[in-house]
Amino acid sequence: LQRNGDACLIQFIDTGTTKTACISNILAGKVKDQYFPTVYGKGYYGDYDKTTTYYKQAKQLWQNMLKRCYCEKDLKGYYGKATVSQRWLNFSNFLEDLPSLVNFKQWLAGQQKTGGKYNLDKDLKVKGNTCYCKEACMFVTEFENKSEGAKNGKPYTKMGKS
pTM here? Predict the structure, then answer.
């Protein structure tokens, strides 16, 4: 803990993360550890760029992905059957990696209502894959996602909406 006027450098015990904040915000409980897993006990937000135009849509997609993998109550999900890579447990990394995924521009157009709906898929690019990660994921049309799911005998699941 270091103090400089009203600003204070604090370190969070659980993650070791440091942050500078106003003392009044610290005392009011407004300062949060962005590296503590708060999303389904696994995901954390990190320091992401809120100026990224699609961060809200990406955040919803990321939360739904985590829900599918780590929420026992999500009946449409993959609880106990699929995981999310260590890198993508951090939303900031997920947001950074999205533009490199196949069909990202089509997914984004669909989010902006100027294109068709695309879903995040983990096992078309790498058959049998059970981990959501940059290397294996891509965006596919809802039709492709539904068709492939039916072929594999698994239920149709939409990552974009839950």
Answer: 0.82
